[in-house]
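Annex B. Sample input.
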Amino acid sequence: MLELVVPVAAVMLGIALLLNAWRLFVGPGATDRILALDTLYVNAAAIIVLFGVHIGHPDFFEAALLIALLGFVSTMALAKFLLRGDIIE
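Annex B, continued. Sample output.
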């Protein structure tokens, strides 16, 4: 069953990445672009986890965790910059 689910999930995540990239470049406002970037990080981490499950190597899970952490921090920094115009108080 896993041999069927992993390629289907990879295709769906690839489509989601393309749609996120489209929203990132075409988005009508800065908030839409920040949310698209955040979702892009989440989808990239999901693809890395899926690849780790596919090959059975646990090191990819740590890489996905690192990408998710950096994505969260950068989203918070961009949101703070958008609200206040300054990141460091």
